[in-house]
Structures are given as structure tokens and as C-alpha cells.
Design a protein that fits this description.
This protein is an alpha/beta fold. Helix content is 37%, strand content 17%. Strand 11 (248-253), helix 9 and strand 12 form a beta-alpha-beta unit. Helix 2 packs across helix 3 (69-82) and helix 12 packs across helix 13 (343-356). Bound molecules: cobalamin (B12) and iron/sulfur cluster.
Amino acid sequence: MPDIVLTTLNAKFIHAAFGLRYLFANLGELQPRAVIAEFDINLRPLDIAETLLARAPKIIGVGLYIWNVEETTAVIAAIKRIRPEIKIILGGPEVSYETEGQPIVELADHVITGEADLKFAEVCRELLDANPQSAIRNPQFPKIIPAELPEFSRLSLPYDFYTDADLAHRIIYVEASRGCPFTCEFCLSSLDIPVRQVPLDKFLAAMQKLLDRGLKQFKFVDRTFNLNILTSKALLEFFLSRYRPGMFFHFEMIPDRLPAELREVIAKFPPGSLQFEVGIQTFNPEVGALISRRQNYERLADNFNYLRKKTSVHIHADLIVGLPGETLESFAACPARRGVADGLQRAAALRNFAEQAD
Ligand code: B12
Ligand code: SF4
């Protein structure tokens, strides 16, 4: 029986829990005493609790996100009713920035805030004796434990912990960097500063291993893949030179940063192989200022047109209605108010844009 169960409720079965795999990969000598048990939010909380209890762990580490907090609260309440001595350690974005007043935090023993890749192992080491037969210890931790930002050079990468079944049936998330240098007020990632890169050699070796295992679809979770142009170019070239039919790569990008060297390599990708999630959020500079989002609208339009006309990238563009200071009218009128070009033409372009970008 494992002493540690790492668990989460994914939004759907198809989404593999990437964060848990990072924690598992960095458990060190505790790894043989741990397992990952994933569920999704469509399962019944009592069934999930029963499955977890059947493993008889000493510690359950739970990944909490906006999509699972309600269901997970019911799971943890059931577990604590039946086996109150099991230590519940929470982590994940939903409890990393705000812990007060959350019922699940009341139920838990500890919350590790932030990137817990190394901190989770550290806390487990304090709780567990080297001898698996021993009872759990009760050290004098605070309930809320902030994790220091881990150095990527100290982290073991988690990609070997995607199983062959994961590779065959689920969305596989990968990341070449963490953090975001921007400060959009509505977004939790704006609190994740500074940006840190996974050492490129180590990362590409891990990607090669996934390719060798037959993976064809890669979903990058980097907040802004085109921040460091040298790295983004190296990544794209790496995948392009290994391209085989059926391959697909998803990246999130900022639209006002697409220099010629990146444009050239993007244009070489075959149709259907590259998807960009382009965060525009607003075309209205006043709203942009209110949400602390800096962007160059001229460059944005130029890059966007380039992607539409000169490449076969599939574009997911994000525009948000309802940001502070935005009304439906200002949303539609704002290109004209900026006086960048003829207002009507801009409004038509905006409509066209909205129709084409899904
Ligand atoms: C993949 C993803 C999804 C997937 C779901 C994945 C899944 N497993 O089910 C999909 C595409 C469905 C999705 C949807 C949404 N998402 Co989303 N998503 C992500 C994304 C891009 C990647 C998550 C990831 O793997 N990160 C990389 C890993 C390494 O980081 P991590 O998961 O945060 O894990 C670290 C820590 O959190 C912590 N940790 C994690 N688990 C545990 C467990 C324990 C025990 C401990 C101690 C610590 C710990 O340590 C880990 C290692 O450092 C993030 C953005 C990002 N880049 O992180 C947004 C993000 C998680 N999503 C977010 C949001 C807002 C949404 C949506 C609401 C968006 C929308 N408006 O529709 C929807 C909600 C879905 C729903 N059904 O309701 C927010 C989270 C807000 C929150 N409080 O949870 C994020 C952070 C984006 C953002 N910047 O705002 N999402
Ligand atoms: S640029 Fe994107 S990820 Fe970064 S803070 Fe703004 S919305 Fe969030």
C-alpha cells in the first residue's frame, strides 16, 4: 500500500494532470512509496473517496483548480469523516493565492502555496518516518506553507510519468518555461513572476523521448511561448525537423512579438500542424490600461494579418467582453476611436476577425 497518494479531479478524463506528475517526479527516495490517482469531475465524490481510502495512504496530496474545488471539497469531507488521521495536503492555483474562507482549507491539514515541485517532497519527509511501518509524525508546521520558487535546474522532468495509455488517449501537456512577465489584472499568471526557462537541452531530450514513444500531439502550457525568441525558434525548428503527418503542436503566444526569424519558421509548418492561442483580450487601449495590459496594437494587427495570410496556423484568438471600463458599444467602437485607420473599415475587420477566429 502506498504511503502517499497524489490526486486531482481533472476537468475531463482526456486532460492529464501535469502538475501532479511534476510533484511525483521530484519525490526522490519517497517515490516508491507514492502513486498518482487521477479522477475527473464527472465522477461521484463518494466513489472517489472510496477509491482513495482503499489505498490506505498516510498522506493524500490534492491538486486544486477552479474546475474541481467544489467536488474535491465533498471528497475530502468524506475522507476526513471516515479516516481523520490521513494527512490532507492541498496545493494548486485555487489555493495558492487565496486560502481564507475556503471550506476545503478548513478540512485540510496543510496547504502548500505556489509551485510545490520540491516542497511537497520536503513536507512529506517531515511527516513520514524512513520506516514505512511507523505512524505519521506530527511536526510543528504552519498550516499554510509557501513554496519557494524552484530552480528548474534542480527539478526532475515529469515526462516519463505519462504512461503509454496517456500518450495514446489523452492530451499531453508540456512546458518549456514558467511564469509570465505581464500583469493583466484578471489573470492569476500575472502573479507568477519571474519567467523561468527549462534548460533547453534537457527539455528537448525529454521531447525526443516522447516522440520516440509515438506522441504526435503536444500542448504547451507556457504562458507566452514567443517571449524568448531564440528558445521559441529552437523549439519550432526541433519539431519541424521531426515532423510526421498527424503531428500537432499548440502554443500560447502574445500577438505583438513575432520577428522575421520566427515568422519564417512558423510559415514552414504544414497545414493542421500548428495552433496558436493568441491572447488579445482587448482592442481598447483604455481598457488595456485599466487591466494593466501593455500591447502594441499596430504590431499586433500586422502579426495577426501575417499569421492569417502567410501561414497555415490555426488561430484561437481570445477577446474578452466585460473587462473593466468596457461596454458592448465601446467594444465595437474602439478601433474607430483610436483613429488608427478608417473606423468603419476597422469595425468590419473586427467583425471579420471575430467570425474567423474561434
Ligand atoms: C491545462 C489547463 C486547463 C485544462 C484542464 C486541465 C486538467 N488537468 O483538467 C482545460 C483546458 C480544460 C482548462 C480549462 C479552464 N481553465 Co485552465 N489551465 C490549464 C493550464 C494551461 C495548464 C495547467 C498546468 O498543467 N500547468 C503546469 C503545472 C506544472 O502547473 P500547476 O498545474 O499549476 O501545478 C503546480 C502548482 O499549482 C502546484 N500543485 C499542483 N497540484 C498540486 C497538488 C499538491 C498536493 C500540491 C502541494 C501542489 C500542487 O505545484 C505544481 C508544480 O509546480 C493553466 C495555466 C498554466 N500554464 O499553468 C490554466 C489554469 C489552471 N486554468 C485556469 C482557468 C481560469 C481555466 C478556466 C476557468 C478558463 C475558462 N475561462 O474557461 C477553464 C475551467 C474548466 C472548467 N471545466 O470549468 C486558471 C486557474 C484558475 C484557478 N484558480 O484554478 C489557470 C492557472 C490559467 C490562468 N492563468 O488563469 N484549463
Ligand atoms: S499575458 Fe496572458 S498569461 Fe500573462 S498575465 Fe496576461 S493574460 Fe495572463
